[in-house]
Design goal:
Order of helices and strands: EEHHEHEEHEHEH
Number of helices: 6
Radius of gyration: 17 Å
Shape: globular
Number of strands: 7
Largest sheet: 7 strands, mixed
Strand order of the largest sheet: 1-3-2-4-7-5-6
Length: about 260
Amino acid sequence: MKPVSVIQGTSPVILGMPHVGTYVPEAVAAKLNAEGRRLRDTDWHIDRLYDGLLPGASVVKANFHRYLIDANRDPSGVSLYPGQNTTGLVPQTDFDNRPIWADGPDAAESERRLAEWHAPYHAALAAEVGRVKAVHGIAVVYDCHSIRSRCPFLFEGELPVLNIGTNDGLTCDAKFARIATEIAGNSGFTWVANGRFKGGWTTRHYGQPETGVHAIQMEIAQSAYLAAEEEPWTFDAGRAAPLRQTLKTLLAALEDAAIGGIS
């Protein structure tokens, strides 16, 4: 199993998908407990949700599961949300704070996973950012995520459908943030900007607008496109249709803004 799959497109927009993968090597799967083997914290069908919405977009997709190692966490292990409940680089619990390992990895094993899985994903993403920027003079990293709408360990109540993260405006030019919030605001879906999810390591690491690289994270409540937020995590095309239209509009607007230049 390759750690990452890449589709090279012609657009200045790159879709990052660090949490859609479900692959876990057999030796590692054997060390997960029954809860861990459910892989509940997958960004279920996020690749299908975005499929075809921006035909020229590049796609960088992790094929491995976040329980192996989380491609959207700082490789140093530093928390992205100090003082808040979260999961780490190699998660020890799921999003409900339940242990996922019968025999968790030691430091040496965690370092191997970092080198064999996390690093190749980001090498591929960094290469695509460089390629796209060389062509267009600009790159927009749009990081695709989803999560159950209710996770009391992580946040209170029900999550809005659309959660835009720009690390409080630091990871992209205000023009891109404004486009995202205006389209979300007119979508009919509940939404928030820089609420519980301000952007993970991908958004914060690559989002350097002063260099021409802009990054936005979109965290989506899975209630908006799954038949149910439980096994077997079935994609509901009818429920997803209006969400896909909103996302299509958003991606096209980000592309147009990138091609048109910052003003």
